[in-house]
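Q: Outer membrane lipoprotein-sorting protein, please. Structure only.
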Amino acid sequence: MRHLFRTCAAALLLLPAGLALAQVPPPSFVPVPPKKPAALMRTAQAGPAAAPAAATAAPAASPDIQVAAAANQRAANETVQRINDYFNSFKTMIGDFVQVDPNGDRQQGQFYILKPGRVLFEYEAPSRIELVADGRSVAVRDKKLKTQDISPLSATPLRFLLSENFNLARNANVTGVYQDDIFATVVIEEKQPMVGTYRLMIMFDAKTMQLKQWTVTDPQGYDTTVAVSNLDTSQRPDPMLFVINRN
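A: Structure for Outer membrane lipoprotein-sorting protein:
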């Protein structure tokens, strides 16, 4: 059950392998980032580069390189702000999802978000799984066996999607921003004690900034991708959908 939780939760949390494609290619209708993004722009949180070990000072960057770097930084800041504005423009979301697991299996279903902290992913048959977060915890349920595995919401990448005030500019875990004509992509890395590093890649439509998909890479290097569609932010889900029975 715990392995199932990691698979489901990873799939529904967001995160890809640094600069690479998912190890298991998603189906053709699931968008995939370019192998070599047009630009990789570091966010403002990145600290100054470490001084070289050699005594000889590194040559100063040319004016053209400095101008290009400044332009990339401005573009990154603008992309981050547009993503922030998009995520903070809604409190609820309903839509469809398609999940591609590390072994290539595909599952699909519907999801419901009610900020802050609440989400429900309902998998269609033959899957028996359901994932729900109630603001404090995340539960993966086996509907046939009537069992569930519960973990703190704070210990999962889901919290990034479900936060009430989404602000990438203040998120120290953001390691980079991609931008091209099709997608805007944010990469987040998080180290968890005794577990390892998770990577999360979230992809948005470059024009509208609408959420398109995410990929979670677990510490063992396995990728799970979730693509979303038919998004509706006008309906408010029933709060009772997000109740976790702990009895």
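A: Brief note, in case it's useful. The domain at 2-29+65-242 is CATH 2.50.20.10 (outer membrane lipoprotein receptor (LolB), chain A).
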